[in-house]
Amino acid sequence: MARSLDGLILAPVADQAPGQVGTRTRFAYHEEDGGIWAEYAGGDVVRGRLVGTREGDRLDFRYVQLKTDGTTASGHCVSTVVELPDGRVRLEETWEWESGPGSGTSIVEQITGQITGQVTGQAP
Q: Record's InterPro entries (predicted)?
């Protein structure tokens, strides 16, 4: 099993469609006793939250977000946690919107040099 996500900052490696998460979005992950959750923001997302479970290297979670245009969106995602050769973590994701049509795949990877407070707008 790849290492814990607790305290890690991850970012998409590519932009999705307009109005969705993109390379400027940052996810601050937390993990405890098989539960995972994260706050995210950046790009077209003002504020987002995800919550779910981890079994081995598989994450299963729901997400909800407020976008810059004032709309909200929600969905479901299943991710595989992969440890990269340089020691960073990658999530290989398959997602689907539950608030409207659409589905796809994405990859987010651990970034270094940022603290959680920079993602959530709170003091670290």
A: Avidin-like (IPR058595)
DSSP code at position 69: T
Question: Which pLDDT tens digit goes with each residue over 75-118?
Answer: 999 999 999 999 999 999 999 999 999 999 999 999 986 544 44
Is there a contact between 100 and 73 (Cβ–Cβ < 8 Å)? yes
Beta-strand pair 26-32/9-12? antiparallel
CATH architecture of 9-120: Beta Barrel (2.40)
SS3 state at 99: coil
| 8-state DSSP, 1 | -
pTM assigned to the model: 0.87
The residues spanned by each domain of the chain are: 9-120
